[in-house]
Amino acid sequence: MRAAASRGRRYPEPDHAFRSLYQRDRERVVHCTAFRRMTGKTQVLVASVNDHHRTRLTHTLEVVQVARTVARRLRLNEDLTEAIALAHDIGHPPFGHAGEDALNACLAPHGGFNHNLFGLRRVDELEERYPGFPGLNLSFEVREAFVQHAGADVEEFRAAGRPLLEAQVVDVVDSLAYDTHDTDDALGLGFITLDDLAAVEFWGRAAERVRAHTPGLSGNPFRTAVVRELLAWQVTDLLDETARRLAGANVRTLTDVRAAPAPLVGFSPEVRKLKAGLERFLRERVYRHHRVLRMTANGKRVLTALFHEYVAHPELLPEKHLRRWDGADAVIGRPPPGWVTANRQPLPGLERVVGDYLAGMTDRFAQAEYRRLFLPSLDL
In what residue span(s) does the HD domain sit (predicted)? Predict the structure, then answer.
């Protein structure tokens, strides 16, 4: 995908003197508030457990690194790939998938909650960095990746066709990264042991490779080497299989990509099978570990309680967020300041405003808000 062939931005802007369209997208994502907040959001475990396991931000940076490698090798657009990768988790709420489940339940009568579609809403409307338009005004190609990753039916993107190769790469690399790194974090936190993993074929075969080329390793050096071997194996397989699919489908143009009957980026059948075995192990032994379940239950409880409290008492919302609701004047009793509502789409209902506020929180801030509202204290 070349920048010159882009479908452009929602609000036209002049070209930059020395930065391409997708370079600017990438840098707008990096400088936005939602990107910074990912450092305090759960990947699998609440972000305050220790300083070593992945957060949503460090996971994103690992996805970016691998995705750029794949894009360069396949001669794709690296800037576009990186922009999509940097933004792909920007819509995640606090407490990981548990937070998403809680918000989806709270908002079920109002359209539900999906982190990919919230990511699009975040970059289209909720970020406030430019006085001339709402959001970040990203290119069509970065924005469509949110919708296609969600598998949602959104009219603006309905006729686009199959995702661009750059978006397909990010989607597959995301899965590659979290499978491998969730395994690494679970070992580091003591949820599982190396002996537990010996029965997982993917891990076992990677471990055999490590023992063959670096005999004598044990403990953490061995664990690190096997994780690195798993990553390298998957990336190499992804490149080989994707090149085979592109050649077999005779892909030459963007039209060929958009019209392809099946995904063009992916793993070989062997690696897909091995990866599925690792994922089953993670679901059974890590994602349902009692410590993880306690964290997720508490996260759901916090967000559900906050949601209902803010809906019942909207005056508790910060004015910046309350102003996104069309009933704010009656609560606040004064007109809004100038640019906060400039260039806005029709204002949403209160429940959606509350959902937006909660989804933007970090784990720590959500817990602090819960304490301020529900535990007796004189703190403001």
Answer: 56-179
Q: Measured between alpha carbons, how far is 216 from 56 in angstroms, rounded to an integer?
A: 34
Q: Tens of pLDDT along 239-285?
A: 999 999 999 999 999 999 999 999 999 999 999 999 999 999 999 99
**Residue 4, token pair as written in the block:** 């010159």
What does residue 122 show for φ and ψ, rounded to 5 degrees? Answer: -60, -50
Could you give phi then psi for residue 223, rounded to 5 degrees? -55, -45
For the cut 60, the answer to whether the pLDDT of residue 338 exceeds it is no
DSSP string, 267-329: --HHHHHHHHHHHHHHHHHTTT-HHHHHHHHHHHHHHHHHHHHHHH-GGGS-HHHHTTSTTHH
Report all structural domains of the chain as residue ranges with CATH numbers, in order of start. 18-290 (1.10.3210.10), 291-334+343-374 (no CATH)
- DSSP one-letter code for 335: P
* pLDDT at residue 12 greater than cutoff 90: yes
Cα 199 from Cα 180, distance rounded (Å): 16
Query: 276 vs 324, which has greater pLDDT?
Result: 276
* CB neighbour burial string for 313-334, b if at least 16 within 10 angstroms, e if fewer: ebebbeeebbbbbeebeeeeee
For residue 358, pLDDT beyond 90? yes
d(CA 56, CA 69) in angstroms, rounded, equals: 20
Q: Residue 303 in contact with residue 362, Cβ under 8 Å?
A: no
The answer to whether the beta carbons of residues 41 and 92 sit under 8 Å apart is yes
The tens digit of pLDDT for each residue in 44-79 reads: 655 445 556 788 999 999 999 999 999 999 999 999
DSSP for 146-165, please give it.
HHHHHT---GGGTTS-SPPH
Which amino acid is residue 352, in one-letter code? R
- Among 358, 365, 374, 346, residue whose Cα is nearest residue 321: 358
